[in-house]
Amino acid sequence: MKALEEKIRNEGEVYPGNVLKVGSFLNHRIDVPFMCECGKEFHRLFDGCGVNKILTVEASGIAVAVLTAQYFGCPAVFAKKSKTSNIADDVYSAPVRSFTHNCVNQVMIEKKYLEPGDKVLIIDDFLAHGEALTGLVKIVEDAGAEVAGAGIVIEKAFQEGGKALRECGYRIESLARVASMDADSGEITFID
Ligand code: 5GP
Questions:
Q1: Cis omega before residue 179 (within 30°)?
Q2: Atom 20 of ligand 1, nearest CA residue
Q3: Which CATH architecture best describes the domain 2-178?
């Protein structure tokens, strides 16, 4: 999406450690009309694939997952990162190393929210090393459901997650693919 690349160039900030901050529209303040356009694009890409559930992981994937789900007319489910008293014991779970917090969370979803036969589109804000996506894929497959694919707003294509998951046969559609970014100059380039 050219408009997304423009927005990342204009509003994104590159931090040391290969971190891209897009707090102005995706990760802190949500630009709702713009994120709806991203949701529409995911719907266009995966329309006709029988998707009946959108899945993401808290927290920063939730906004785009919900805005995407409205175009599919289906529920959005998010994996929780910690076990709170209001979550049942009967869960699917997977360990996920957090890129931004450098810790491992056991992410979980109550079993009643994911059923065998579900066709699940995984949505996330970023794809870096593929930890979050791999954990969500495991949860979907543990539930006997099917992964229709994954829709990613920003893939950092110079990190290996996207390549590894595509090689495993998963369909990954990223709306912007960052080829390189430089924390000193702030320059960001994209793969067409
Ligand atoms: P992965 O699991 O693919 O290594 O990283 C993806 C997850 O880490 C995403 O859910 C996202 O929240 C976070 N993440 C990875 N890289 C970045 C980044 O450059 N900027 C931001 N804001 N989040 C990132």
A1: no
A2: 20
A3: 3-Layer(aba) Sandwich (3.40)
